[in-house]
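Data deposition worksheet. Section B asks for the primary sequence of the deposited chain exactly as it was used as input, without tags or linkers unless they were present during the calculation. Section C holds the resulting structure in token form. Section D is free text for depositor observations; keep each observation to a single sentence. Incomplete worksheets are returned to the depositor.
Section A, Depositor: J.P.
Section B:
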Amino acid sequence: MTLVNGPKSAAVLYSSLLQSCIGSNAFRQGKSVHHRTIIAPSALPPDLHLSTKLVIFYSHFGDVAAARRVFDGMLHRSVVSWTAMVSAYAKNGRPREALELFALMLRSGARPNQFTFGSAASACAGARCARSGEQVHACAAKGRFAGDMFVQSALMDMHLRCGSVVDASRLFAEMERKDVVSWNALIRGFVEHRHYSDALGLFASMLRDAMVPDHFTFGSALKASGAVSLLSNVELIHTCIIKLGYLDNKIVTASLIDSYAKCRSLSSARVIYDSMCEPDLVSSTALISGYSMDRNHSKDAMKLFCKIHRKGLRIDGVLLSSLLSICANTASIKFGTQVHAYVCKKKPMGDAALDNALVDMYAKAGEFTDARRAFDEMPHRNVISWTSLITACGKNGFGEDAVTLFDRMVEDGVKPNDVTFLALLSACSHSGLMNKGIEYFTSMMSKYGINPRVEHYSSAIDLLARGGQLEDAWKLVQKMNAEPSSSMFGAMLGACKIHGNVPLGETAAKNLFSMDPESSSHVCGKMLRGPENYWRKHPEEKKFVTVSYEKVMVDGDEISQAIPISIIRERKYQSSEYRKRREFGGKDTSYAQATTLIQARGPMRSVPSCWSMGCDAFYSAEWLTTITI
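Section C:
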């Protein structure tokens, strides 16, 4: 290359080439341009503008180390150079280094501009460092940039991401001019902090101020409406989207589908999905996630999955997790095992949410061995993973295993949450581990600082009541911070009947009747002093408590099963013989008849394990087109 007009013109030319490489995402070509600027015979003398452009180029492609090498090699630095490097750190997930460089810039005597303060505020937001953010805010005010719209939007975003909604709202109110970016920042912040009513109120104010929303605004407003199930709001926003011509925007369409689904208007969600020219993965995942919230649409979800698989769409972990959730809620072990095989064949392991969904699916289907294996094969376990398996242990009667798992979880450095303790207390309650359960109930407050909810109190009261510690259970009811639930008084009433504590039982019964007058438990309360006399005096009530029907899921199909219930006799953990009789017609069914029925039915599990057979036995490209759903 001949430098006809001198090095200055060449530097301008190279800067233009680098900008073109940024615009077309041509990293290799940009590196070649850089190479030509430093290698003879085309090497150029140091140029401030070209070096700054190189910093911006490497920052755009995430090569922060290369950007810093160029920055450190600069003989002179302008405010644009400093800002480019601070921004490079902030945009590439290195906020601490961005703040350190910003401090170095101030010490060097360079004067930041509005873009420097904006990048520094973004770094504070990324580091979740409110104190540094306040210092940047004060520095911007001192430099008379606090009123700049760009700086104000960045500071407002910083306050929101640091958890200070009040400071962000105050800053927004002080803004003389507000653009759509400012409105979007506060609306999104309200949604992220679950202030949905404030978010929707701000969206309405935005429209009243004649500010035209964009697709980011609609996404946040729809998310807020869906979170509080305001179908009328979703429909109004839908109308606004049509008027402004955003219906073709796939992000907005996916948000619409998700919001309608959360409002239980799945038919509207499906109409929008079917009207799309080319439904993408995001919209498909939104619809399947909506179907996962309603078990009546489980087959629709499975058919949609088969359809998008045939179209060749890339399927991610979020969609597969939603499918496994559907299989878990409908006990569809056959389809769930096939999805598991698909995961083994097509997806790399290590997706924590997907692994957790596998554990949950097998656990809810009663396949504890497979749930445990899915857990053991997880490369990384979070609190949800441990909680899912502890819940499975409790539901399958393995209380000791639940306790062991919890101890292992703590040893591994995973901090339990309130849901973990609820699962643990339930497991202890169903396995008769009263002392252990109360110990955990106490430690959740004293050791982990978790305030118990009504559900925790209910489990602890049930633990004490089952163990015969009725007075202690009643004291816990009286001193709890929350309002007692009817289930607590029901547990107390049942325990008082078993252990013969009539006075306390009558007190529990009175509280239960005042909360739930329609409950059949009032019969149990009246029978505390004499059930035989009660039935002679009230024969008309016996028909309401002799037989109950509960709905159960069998391989995805809902059926009603008659369960005889005797509230006169003490409930005991039945023997295997009694369980067989009860399952097939009640206590009048003979043991031989029950055994014959079990043998005729065959094993409960009709689908072998994905592990026992190997995923190749389940998965093939054809199963999605031939499966009977």
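Section D:
Strands lie at 547-554, 557-564.
Residues 1-76 form one domain.
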